[in-house]
Amino acid sequence: MGARTQVSLHITKGLQTLTFKIQGAPTIERLAPIEKKLASSAKEAKVKQIVWDLSELESMDSALALLIAKHIRQAEKSGQEVTFSAMGSEVKRMLSMAQEHAHFDSSFETRKESILQAVGEDSIDRLKKLADFLDFFGRLSLTFFYSFYHLRHIRWK
């Protein structure tokens, strides 16, 4: 295997701008420190413009693209202008795909069942099973009684 490229995020804060510069070839395994730095600096920053310098980025995987797209979306929602200084064509393509296909606004909430809801669902399930049993028993009984009333239709050997 080749030598691992050092991944780093440099943050430069000006009067009205905040510049993020990512260097190296980040992968999902090495993305946690970058994510922590981005989250902490985004909370502190009260600037009008955010500049992403991706000129020294060797490659971009989908995890980094989604992370950058998420921070771009957050910055645009807070009224900040986002610009890019330089980036390669592969990086640009990956970032545009992440922005196009990511669903950051949709949220999934885990729902905790209440006891009353669990009892109600269990009761409905038991009633359905009882109705199915009664349906089966009724059809079986009708077939049985039909065979007794029409004995000549039954073939005896």
Structure, explained:
With 157 residues, the chain is α/β, with parallel strands linked by helices. It folds into two domains: 8-101, STAS domain (Transcription Regulator spoIIAA); 115-153. It has four helices and four strands. The protein has helices at residues 32-44, 62-77, 89-101, 115-149; strands spanning 8-13, 17-23, 49-53, 81-84. The chain has a four-stranded mixed sheet, covered by helices on one side. Helix 2 packs across helix 3 (89-101). The N and C termini lie far apart (81 Å). The model has no long low-confidence stretch (mean pLDDT 82).
CATH architecture annotation of the largest domain = 2-Layer Sandwich
CATH superfamily of the largest domain: STAS domain
CATH topology of the largest domain: Transcription Regulator spoIIAA
The tally of beta strands, per DSSP, is 4
- Tell me the span between the first and last alpha carbons: 81 Å
CATH class identity of the largest domain: Alpha Beta
Q: In what range is the share of β-strand residues?
A: 5-15%
Strand order in space, largest sheet: 1-2-3-4
Rg over CA atoms, rounded to whole Å, is: 32 Å
**Based on CA inertia axes, which overall geometry fits?**
elongated
Query: How is the biggest beta sheet arranged?
Result: 4 strands, mixed
Helix segment count?
4
Number of domains: 2
Helix fraction bin: 40-55%
Structural class assignment: alpha/beta
- The average pLDDT value, as a whole number, equals 82
Q: Point out poorly predicted stretches.
A: none
User: In sequence order, what are the helices and strands, one letter per element?
Assistant: EEHEHEHH
